[in-house]
Specification:
This protein is mostly helical. It is built from two helices and no strands. The protein has a domain of about 100 residues. It is rod-shaped, with a radius of gyration of 35 Å.
């Protein structure tokens, strides 16, 4: 008996979609990394500002020179500008990460669709193969019966 091999008609498309999904996964992971780096930088700037303010506050109770107060205020002002800039970077990185996540989800859905079609086609192939095998067995049985009748 000749054994047929299952050949999925959309195998090349599935392969292409899988590759696109892997690429989207890599781009998404890069976007997550950039977001985490930007968020980490923002956290450190905020922490630095908080530490400086608490240091200045503790120093004010003991007395601080006007020049030193001015210096701290200028430094805090510069930190606030850096924080504001960094917040924009974090927001853009978050938006990019969310966009890449939605792209990845779309690619994932496409791959799943083709995998589902492949699964259904394979089940149909197996059912057809089983049906053909049953018919062949019936034919063999009929031939054997006819050969016995002739003798």
């Amino acid at each position: 008996m000749v054994q047929m091999r299952f050949q999925y008609k959309f195998e090349k498309i599935l392969s292409l979609k899988s590759r696109e999904k892997e690429e989207a996964q890599a781009v998404y992971e890069e976007a997550v990394k950039k977001f985490e780096e930007a968020a980490d930088k923002l956290y450190h700037l905020l922490k630095k500002k908080e530490d400086l303010e608490s240091y200045q506050s503790s120093k004010l109770t003991n007395g601080l020179q006007v020049q030193e107060i001015r210096h701290h205020q200028q430094f805090i002002g510069n930190l606030e500008k850096s924080i504001e800039h960094c917040q924009k970077i974090v927001m853009n990185a978050r938006n990019m990460m969310n966009f890449q996540q939605s792209q990845l989800m779309e690619k994932n859905i496409e791959v799943k669709k083709y995998e589902k079609i492949k699964e259904k086609d394979h089940l149909q192939f197996l059912a057809d193969e089983k049906y053909a095998e049953g018919r062949m067995m019936d034919e063999i049985s009929i031939q054997q019966y006819m050969n016995r009748e002739i003798r």
